[in-house]
């Protein structure tokens, strides 16, 4: 059996490679190898207190630190029976929207979009489409402005705590951020119209899409766990239906349903499961494109979410009233679960807290580890059905998922043969 190695994967976050196994002209298997050194975050959290954990998990990812922080906060507030008031919930939603805008924009414009123009990098694309990349920078700055306003800074925010925020922003800073968002919105809406004109490869694969759902709004932190196949679960039931498993070639754990079925998470899954929760005008804009099983159109799903997040954060900040930044709480022992929608998909945290308020057990399931098997499946079918260079096809199919390999490389056991 012959190996075709794509090493390393380019225009993805982190270090990985794809190996294609062929016999003659027949593709036999695909293996996504994640070889980035594991960082043992779950073990690093043992012995830490909640507010230390919140600062530590932000370091798991520079693109989606808020996702890790707010998922941990949700878990701890469950242990301590903290009931945060509505203004804190709304501000957290606005903060998470900022991360969606920033992270999606980074992927769309600098990692994904060059594929649709046959370019090797965004620098090559900028020679022909400088105005598009300038627009991407405008959107990313808009997302970062929200992160700075509510998180204290846009990389590894420092303003989140159990019970709320350390401090709330001034009225002057809110108005400054609102001005940035107002300027960014028409840019985003115009780009969506342009992106619909792109030539998307004719490729679809049946996929089980898992996300949050059944919430009053398009889900970010709210709701139950749902699937495109009709599954409906409380967040507390996650580990009854899903499991992690390890393969020797990857420093990231794979995930699957306990019956062995593969699933995927992310923007495409969220749109598929919650299309009816999007504003009517956004649904009309992408009619005929979304929802879909074509992974290449994940670019459109992310662009829709950028527009939604810009509108949502603007609406929240416009209606912000002065109030207390946090509520007090008493430390208790127990177990708490947090599940939210990171830009790349469903993110799971579970913590066991002892009487001293310290973490005894920590479990984190990142979105990219949940998507590993789905990525391999897309590459396998895509190479069999799409014309073109196999290596180019494989990389582009992987990039559709916006993998964050560093997030996924969080734990490993040593195999001895």
Automatic annotation (TrEMBL):
Ni(2+) binds at residues 61, 64, 404. Keywords: Iron, Magnesium, Metal-binding, Nickel, Oxidoreductase. Transmembrane segments: none annotated. The keyword Signal does not apply. One of its GO terms (molecular function) is nickel cation binding. Mg(2+) binds at residues 42, 364, 410. InterPro entries: Ni-dep_hyd_lsu (IPR001501), Ni-dep_hyd_lsu_Ni_BS (IPR018194), NiFe-Hase_large (IPR029014). Pfam families: NiFeSe_Hases (PF00374). Fe cation binds at residues 64, 407. This is Coenzyme F420-reducing hydrogenase alpha subunit. The lineage of its organism: Bacteria, Pseudomonadati, Aquificota, Aquificia, Aquificales.
């Amino acid at each position: 059996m012959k190996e075709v190695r794509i090493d390393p994967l380019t225009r993805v976050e982190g270090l990985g490679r794809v190996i294609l196994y062929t016999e003659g002209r027949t593709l036999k298997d695909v293996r996504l190898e994640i070889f980035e050194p594991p960082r043992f975050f779950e073990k690093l959290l043992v012995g830490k207190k909640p507010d230390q954990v919140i600062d530590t998990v932000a370091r798991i990812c520079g693109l989606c630190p808020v996702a890790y922080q707010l998922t941990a906060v949700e878990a701890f507030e469950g242990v301590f029976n903290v009931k945060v008031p509505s203004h804190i919930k709304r501000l957290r939603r606005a903060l998470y929207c900022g991360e969606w805008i920033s992270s999606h924009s980074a992927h769309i414009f600098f990692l994904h979009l060059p594929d649709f123009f046959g370019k090797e990098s965004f620098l090559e694309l900028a020679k022909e489409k400088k105005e598009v990349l300038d627009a991407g920078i405008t959107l990313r700055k808009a997302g970062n402005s929200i992160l700075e306003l509510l998180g204290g800074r846009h990389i590894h925010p420092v303003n989140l705590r159990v019970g709320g925020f350390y401090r709330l922003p001034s009225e002057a800073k809110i108005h400054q951020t609102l001005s940035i968002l107002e300027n960014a919105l028409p840019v985003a809406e115009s780009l969506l119209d342009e992106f619909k004109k792109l030539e998307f490869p004719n490729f679809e694969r049946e996929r089980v899409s898992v996300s949050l759902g059944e919430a009053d709004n398009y889900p970010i932190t709210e709701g139950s766990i749902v699937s495109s196949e009709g599954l409906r679960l409380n967040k507390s039931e996650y580990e009854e239906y899903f499991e992690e498993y390890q393969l020797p070639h990857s420093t990231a754990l794979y995930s699957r349903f306990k019956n062995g079925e593969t699933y995927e998470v992310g923007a495409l899954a969220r749109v598929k499961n919650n299309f009816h929760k999007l504003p009517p005008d956004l649904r009309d804009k992408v009619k005929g494109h979304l929802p879909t099983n074509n992974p290449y159109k994940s670019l459109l799903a992310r662009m829709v979410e950028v527009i939604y997040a810009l509108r949502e954060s603007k609406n929240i900040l416009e209606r912000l009233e002065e109030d207390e930044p946090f509520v007090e709480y008493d430390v208790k022992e127990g177990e708490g679960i947090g599940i939210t929608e990171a830009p790349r998909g469903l993110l799971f945290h579970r913590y066991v807290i002892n009487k001293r308020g310290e973490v005894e057990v920590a479990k984190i399931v990142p979105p990219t580890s949940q998507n590993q098997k789905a990525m391999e499946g897309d590459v396998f079918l895509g190479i069999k059905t799409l014309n073109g260079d196999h290596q180019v096809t494989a990389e582009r199919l992987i990039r559709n998922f916006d993998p964050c390999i560093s997030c996924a490389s969080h734990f490993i056991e040593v195999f001895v043969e």
